[in-house]
Specification:
single chain; mainly alpha; two-stranded antiparallel sheet; 11 helices; globular
Length: 279
């Protein structure tokens, strides 16, 4: 194999070693993942009472939208989904099943969720590797890998007039795609691990993170207002800086602060305490 060229990243000059070997999901997994995306999109459209054209459109966008966005942004190797008619037929098959058997497909929710988690990792790896081969630096590579994994669901929700699922609080989904893309860059491009091995490790890590987040209720961080905390910092800083400068002498402060040292009601104007003579 010829020496791999190096591309310096824009941030911090992080080198990414680009290999001529292209990693791609196994055809069976690729078709299963595409079918699951189309089926999910078709079910969403059926529940929203779309017609046949609407169901097919949402299924295509859900199953193939992420890869299409990636290829449009790269502008170098054509639209992969349009160059492989089998993927389009697979998505339409998922839409057809959702159109006629929506009730039966809900019973297979757990296997479909597992396939969707595997698809998330597979598409993240495929998008990341394709961006690396295009000569991009680390951050754009991770971004395109994430877009490939979650872009279809993003477009689906937008076309249906909803806030995208990945933008709302919930378990790790987009975060899992970001982790998968980052881990693949680390293993395959920086540590020079064999790409098929890196593919398996990344998909396993994504599925594990998704499973743990679902079972233990892990959620991505939500906004927290720290205005009141930051506003207190200047006051505390001034109080700390001026402490001890304007205090009274130590003895007087002790007398003023100690209630036991206060004059009694029988004390004179001088503050002396009168002692009752013994009979």
């Amino acid at each position: 194999m010829r020496p791999a060229p190096r591309h310096e990243a824009a941030l911090g000059y992080i080198p990414i070693v680009v290999s001529s070997f292209v990693v791609a999901p196994p055809p069976a997994f690729e078709l299963a993942a595409t079918f699951t995306g189309g089926l999910y999109g078709g079910l969403r459209a059926v529940r929203a009472e779309f017609d046949a054209v609407g169901v097919a459109t949402i299924a295509i966008v859900s199953g193939l939208g992420g890869g299409m966005i990636r290829d449009v942004l790269l502008q170098s190797q054509g639209i992969y989904a349009l160059q492989n008619p089998g993927l389009l037929l697979t998505v339409l098959l998922g839409a057809l099943i959702a159109f006629f058997f929506a009730g039966a497909t809900t019973r297979a929710a757990r296997p479909m969720r597992l396939i969707d988690d595997i698809a998330l990792g597979l598409f993240a790896v495929a998008g990341t590797d394709k961006a690396v081969l295009a000569g991009l630096s680390a951050i754009p590579v991770i971004m395109l890998g994430t877009i490939t994994a979650v872009g279809g669901g993003l477009l689906r929700d937008l076309l249906m007039g909803k806030i995208p699922h990945i933008l709302r609080p919930g378990t790790f989904y987009a975060a899992a795609a970001v982790m998968g893309s980052t881990l693949y860059v680390l293993l395959a491009e920086w540590l020079n691990l064999v790409k098929p091995v890196a593919l398996v490790l990344v998909v396993g890590a994504v599925v594990l993170l998704r499973t743990l987040s679902e079972s233990r209720g892990w959620h991505a961080p939500v906004p927290t207002d720290l205005t009141h905390v930051v506003a207190r910092i200047p006051r505390h800083a001034v109080r700390f800086a001026t402490r001890g400068r304007f205090q009274a002498p130590h003895q007087d402060a002790r007398v003023d602060d100690d209630p036991s040292a206060a004059p009694s009601e029988d004390a004179g104007q001088t503050g002396d305490i009168r002692v009752k003579p013994r009979e």
